[in-house]
Amino acid sequence: MEPERQRGDAGAVIFVTADDVGGRLRLPDPVIGDVLDILPLGDDGRGLAERNQYVDFDLLASAQAGDKGVVR
């Protein structure tokens, strides 16, 4: 998966194309107070290999649990 930058009517937007997206989970960071929005994917092993930093937010590196049951 790779984030894609596009120009929209409201300015630049970031898209990450994914199939079988589950419901959004919102988790507060108890130390900083930021809210993490997490979108679970139905396919094992799908995620972002690297952190992607933007002006207003970061897309964190991730991987979904595979046959070993490990989540990074």
Automatic annotation (TrEMBL):
Domain of life where this protein originates: Bacteria
Protein name, per record: Uncharacterized protein
Protein's organism: Iodidimonas gelatinilytica
Upper lineage: Bacteria, Pseudomonadati, Pseudomonadota, Alphaproteobacteria, Iodidimonadales
